[in-house]
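Lab meeting, action items carried over

1. Structure of the three-component assembly. Owner: GW. Status: complete.
Input record:
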Amino acid sequence: MLITIYLIAITTEAMSGALAAGRRRMDLFGVALIAFVTALGGGTVRDILLGHFPVSWTQHPEYIYLTVGAGLSTMLFARFIHHLRELFLILDAAGLVAFTLIGCNTALEMGYSQPIVVMAGLITGIFGGVLRDILCGQVPLVLKHELYASVSLLVALLYLALEHYQVPEDITLLAVFSTGLAIRLAAVRWHWTLPVFDYTREHW
Amino acid sequence: MLITIYLIAITTEAMSGALAAGRRRMDLFGVALIAFVTALGGGTVRDILLGHFPVSWTQHPEYIYLTVGAGLSTMLFARFIHHLRELFLILDAAGLVAFTLIGCNTALEMGYSQPIVVMAGLITGIFGGVLRDILCGQVPLVLKHELYASVSLLVALLYLALEHYQVPEDITLLAVFSTGLAIRLAAVRWHWTLPVFDYTREHW
Amino acid sequence: MLITIYLIAITTEAMSGALAAGRRRMDLFGVALIAFVTALGGGTVRDILLGHFPVSWTQHPEYIYLTVGAGLSTMLFARFIHHLRELFLILDAAGLVAFTLIGCNTALEMGYSQPIVVMAGLITGIFGGVLRDILCGQVPLVLKHELYASVSLLVALLYLALEHYQVPEDITLLAVFSTGLAIRLAAVRWHWTLPVFDYTREHW
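Predicted assembly:
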């Protein structure tokens, strides 16, 4: 089931990347690359930081086709996409949870300590979007906006706790997905934000 | 021969990097670093993604001297460089082909599957320029402009096809370089571009 | 002693990262991430480029707590920090030297050649700041400003020379730190800069 959600997640992320590329008036190639990087960049950064070679997508060329295909299709369907805004928010939130869990698992299997497992989940969850924003020449949204990274962090901590108490796998997944989705969608709905740090001096 | 073209290619890329640094009024050190990154960054990203350690330039310190030297020399000769515009376009196009072939070969030797071989060629071809543009604070040109990345992609596909049919090495090189150069120079000459995706909504 | 200076250094860098995040009005999470990346990003880039796995901070979760903690504390003390400007300049300069030495040592222990050892020192010294600036959406300061990277380069070269002549460890450290600090602080005090390359043509 996690795999199915993962495939939906990378498709959704690829589409969000394609739209970001479209806002910068990129060409076909730019759209394909940004779609690919947004969908698979988080896992790539995680694999490199953990020394997890070969990098996952190099063993799954079908992920390349899927994300590039989703990115390019977005060019055709772009005008209809905003009608599906609610659906995309839900898929994006489910994807964030799935990315986080897969990131945690990769680090767990490699025997990393718990703080690194949490970092691996977080990095997998947010770095696709960070790379997308850097390539699009803007400050990563995740550093400024809404509860997004925090959801990933909470999900990773909850997952580790449930694993620690050996809660059965299905209950863990159910708990983690419902918590993650609920917080993320509530954050979007009621504009929950973290406190902002506003520092205006140019030098210290 | 590929090695000679490679050395010319990294020199050309280093000079293009130095000029980009000059447009941002960087200092001597910035020029040297951007020259180095533009010339060797594509291969570095490829090596890291493929898990190909040690990274190539760490075994060839002479590449560091060559690219840094080319970058710094560019500061002296900058005022004359635009007279050589045609020459540079040709060298840059030949370099793109050489980078692509070397990237493909690295992945082939490591036993990666064909789609990854193509990605490795493409990444080697374009990521030096992507890193240059990110360090210079602008959206990577390759995502917006002309047929550049597409030439690298075509070259990689053609190379794999010719390898598959066991065409002799010299004929393969001749075919790949002439095709790559012809398309790239035609694209510059007649302003061939890919379709652009223009999406104006802020949110989906 | 180098470890103590290193811990002070990553704390200082984390605080500089947090202030940069505050200038971009980032939220709590953004501040924590930028603090972490500024402090530990240079060593991470070095480890990845050298193929030095596991990456250092993954074996020292306490570095994560220290840098994130320092970043978040900065939000509370920000209004007082500019009174300590001189202290921070000294700590930052000492940190630059410590980062450079640690980077050189990592490459030395892995058996890399001398030019790569120097590069490893330089990369450890400056890439935390480079990543901070990229994430904050600006051209890396180190490419434009003052003698900063050059100090790291000089320190690396001096360190290698003293090692080569088998100068005793304490004298080496004393020499390297006093030279590095003196040049860096003099560069800040008298606005020493490298020559700037100013190139205005859009195309070559």
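2. GW to write a short summary for the group page. Key points so far: Chain B has one domain: 2-189. The CA atoms of residues 32 and 69 of chain B lie 8 Å apart.
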